[in-house]
From TrEMBL:
This is Xanthine dehydrogenase small subunit. It comes from Pseudomonas fluorescens. NCBIfam families: xanthine_xdhA. Residues 1-90 form the 2Fe-2S ferredoxin-type domain. It holds the Pfam family Fer2. The keyword Iron applies. Residues 192-365 form the FAD-binding PCMH-type domain.
Amino acid sequence: MIQFLLNQELRSEHALDPNLTVLNYLREHVGKSGTKEGCASGDCGACTVVVGELQTDDAGREHIRYRSLNSCLTFVSSLHGKQLISVEDLKHQGELHSVQKAMVECHGSQCGFCTPGFVMSLFALQKNSDAPDHAKAHEALAGNLCRCTGYRPILAAAEQSCCGKQPDQFDAREAETIARLKTIAPTDIGELNSGDKRCLVPLTVADLADIYDAYPQARLLAGGTDLALEVTQFHRTLPVMIYVGNVAEMKRIETFEDRIEIGAATALSDCYEALNAEYPDFGELLHRFASLQIRNQGTLGGNIGNASPIGDSPPLLIALGAQVVLCKGETRRTLNLDDYFIDYKVTARQESEFIEKIIVPRATAEQLFRAYKVSKRLDDDISAVCAAFNLRVENGVITDARMAFGGMAAIPKRAAHCEAALIGAPFNNAVVERACAALAEDFTPLSDFRASKEYRLLSAQNLLRKYFIELQTPHIETRVTAYV
């Protein structure tokens, strides 16, 4: 059984299809049809809901963290122990919520289909903002698309709703909600079981290892932003899933003198602060990683584990010399990330083995790290090419080079010939041109609807040239730039 709060209503579910998304649960099982399906792929934001989760800050104070999510990509099992808030829950005692009023008063809606999603993103923004912030408003709304109104009045609604905000019914009932969430906090393995399909929800790494060993055919579910597409887009059935989002050990970020250890189930939005502090280019790329709704769900381990050749984080992690800790039963092994990827969607992971955490070396003064993403639009788009460069230069001579690319091969990989052309050579234009030519030996990219093979190779070479120019002229700030 799993338990969660639907606003303030306790819901206990057991005999429920684990393949059921929160979107369809709301619409078909609860009768809350305000949440809309626009794309069923996490691109449009019409299905946005907010999930509240009990958190404890550094001072030991308990509070509820509210986050916007795409309900079309969220399976119901991930709600275990949390609070789900939909657009119907905002109106209170006959009065519209302040974010709803702002949308009305700023004329932020026309046809209205996208409006519930915008309202929920604004609600999450209001809950996480103390004052109006133009950049945060753009970030909060970047995952919501409107086809008729235009965004100016919606951004005006964001400013109005966050400026001088007043306590609402959720603030008034926070202590009560915290108490109820503590009451339903999972203490044992949860499960949804419809007879022919099941999803198990372990709480510890040891439980996860035991369950995965017993069900090696199971699909691991973390954020589900990729896995859920098999259900929503390809109409496949997932007979057995294991949801890892309640394994606290896999959601930790620990900083040591020489490394950062990030649990594989840590949401990308939670990774931002630690990675941005060490590597600002990594932080900039995370801002362009899909939408805020996706970053609130998607995990660093999932972005590695799905072995996509165009995943944004693997090239950066490979260039930084990151490692993954793989767990199977009571056995653990540490593998360099560039050895994890073998072929298209093929990895070194063994049966019943899972990524427990990612180890990222901390930055040093000698590193010259930059990252670049080429995509058709700036926000919420998949890379055509993603490049990460990490050089060490001593007395004008390149002593070490790690150059990694996504979108250039069947896997994210290092450019071995390019690195060889750089190491031991002076860091000058002639050497960079030689390294650019070597990229043609490292990669034979494919053509697809995102880019032709010629465009990809030329872009990769130009990004290396860009890297060199920026290091020679550090006042130029054009990193992580999109190209059309």
